Amino acid sequence: MQLESLQLLNFRNYNKANLEFSPHLNVFVGQNAQGKTNLIEAIYFLSLTRSHRAKSDKELIAFSQNQLSVSGNVSRLQGKLVLDIVLSDKGRITKVNHLKQSKLSDYIGHLPVVLFAPEDLQLIKGAPSLRRKFLDIDLGQIKPLYLTEISQYNHVLKQRNSYLKTNQTIDMVFLSVLDEQLITYGSQVIRQRLKFIDKLSTKAKQHHLQISNQQEELSISYQSSIKLTEGKSIEDAFRQQLKKQLDRDLFKKNTSVGPHRDDVLFSINNIEASFGSQGQHRSLILSLKLAEIDLIRETIGDYPILLLDDVMSELDNHRQLKLLENIHKNVQTFITTTSLDHLHQVPNDIQLFHIEKGKIIQETAVH
């Protein structure tokens, strides 16, 4: 997988930009607040049609403009393709090879990315919603149908919660119809998440053992709000739990169980990782990102693109080396940094981009 070029129009502080990339390592160098992360964000946006940091899509559109466009030429094992996104007040238009895509699941997955940013450390100690978002993004890239399943679930969940909130008298027959739809879509979501976590945990465990010099064993488990037991289907367990929580849901006027309430638990040597040191957290997230790369490669048959946003300075020499050992030559990588001094053991075939106040100076790749 390779992003050969990127074209921006009115994206953040770039009114117009056209970049061509190395198939290996691309480094955006510049001081803070010059636009380095905006380029990482643009690649992420091209992949997933959303920003990893903006609260609103409108933030992405350059000041005094009413729309933006991001385009990229992608080379995959199956061949080349062109991706386009136009974002305006009227909404978002996505195209693959100049053909408009009506569904998100038809677009996402053409340019899989793995992002490693400083805020990823919040995955360990942050709110459960961050870990659910992590699951949804990764699963959506390797199995686009999952996006449809989670969308269907969220739609019924919204209907159920709205019905509980706005009706003084509850029609139990109608509520049971909503419940069955919630069970159908929710069970599909949970089933996909369980499979994903099982595979991810195996791969992350291997990487973490290597990074910690065989001293630490990482495990990742899915924490469901539904009591899942052997011999009982997810659907039956979900149905039983909804009945058990019915009085509570009627009183609180919301839905207390389902994948929207689930979580992911990280443990190191059988102790919750949230109690670990900063160094352990960095090793865990690094292991997680390397496992994501492996899993995407195994699932789609091609490597994803790796985006490293200001994280090399967060990693010591040992962790930097482990990262670069795993990605060199196989994974097209984009790094932002304020100085090349942070980069140790960097291969010599890199493409440098110097960023200053939204202006990009591209150096010829060194070989």
TrEMBL record:
InterPro entries: DNA-binding_RecF, DNA-binding_RecF_CS, P-loop_NTPase, RecF/RecN/SMC_N, RecF_2. The keyword DNA repair applies. It is found in: Cytoplasm. The keyword Iron does not apply. ATP binds at G30, Q31, N32, A33, Q34, G35, K36, T37. Residues 3-358 form the RecF/RecN/SMC N-terminal domain. It holds the Pfam family SMC_N. Keywords: ATP-binding, Cytoplasm, DNA damage, DNA repair, DNA replication, DNA-binding, Nucleotide-binding, SOS response. Belongs to the RecF family. The RecF protein is involved in DNA metabolism; it is required for DNA replication and normal SOS inducibility. RecF binds preferentially to single-stranded, linear DNA. It also seems to bind ATP. HAMAP family: RecF. This is DNA replication and repair protein RecF. It comes from Streptococcus pacificus. The lineage of its organism: Bacteria, Bacillati, Bacillota, Bacilli, Lactobacillales.
